[in-house]
């Protein structure tokens, strides 16, 4: 990123959101999870040509089922982070 900013010298403010998105989507070496996953309980969907097309989900989860999956994912993530923190000290 620094190379791109240095070449243009005037576009750093437009590149910051892309840098932050990539940072938030990258798994941490200690926890094994991205900051986005730890906050939301799922991995970030990065735009690409496949998910920019209109598509209908074949799986229709109820809100209750989705919430239960979210809670389970967060619970697992918190346990893994706590374990990684204990092992890091």
Description:
The protein is built from 4 helices and no strands. It is mainly α and 89 residues long. It has one domain (2-44, 61-88). The two termini are 32 Å apart.
Question: What structural keywords apply?
Answer:
89 residues, mainly alpha
Topology at a glance:
Elements: H1 2-8, H2 12-25, H3 35-40, H4 63-88
Biggest sheet: strands, sense, closure? Answer: none
Strand composition percent: under 5%
Q: What is the CA-CA span between the terminal residues?
A: 32 Å
Structurally, the number of domains stands at 1
Question: Which of globular, elongated, flat, extended, rod-shaped describes the shape?
Answer: flat
Poorly predicted residue ranges = none
Strand pairing plus helix content: what structural class? mainly alpha
- Order of helix and strand elements from N to C terminus: HHHH
β-strand number: 0
In which range does the helix fraction lie?
Answer: 55-70%
What value does the average pLDDT take? 77
**Number of DSSP helical runs:** 4
Rg over CA atoms, rounded to whole Å, is 18 Å
Structure, briefly:
The protein has helices spanning 2-8, 12-25, 35-40, 63-88. It is mostly helical and 89 residues long.
């Amino acid at each position: 990123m620094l190379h791109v900013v240095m070449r243009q010298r005037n576009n750093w403010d437009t590149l910051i959101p892309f840098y932050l998105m990539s940072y938030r989507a990258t798994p941490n070496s200690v926890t094994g999870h991205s900051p986005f996953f730890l906050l939301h309980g799922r991995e970030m969907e990065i735009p690409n040509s496949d998910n920019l097309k209109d598509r209908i989900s074949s799986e229709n989860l109820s809100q209750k089922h989705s919430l239960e999956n979210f809670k389970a994912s967060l619970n697992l993530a918190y346990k893994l982070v706590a374990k990684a923190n204990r092992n890091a000290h």
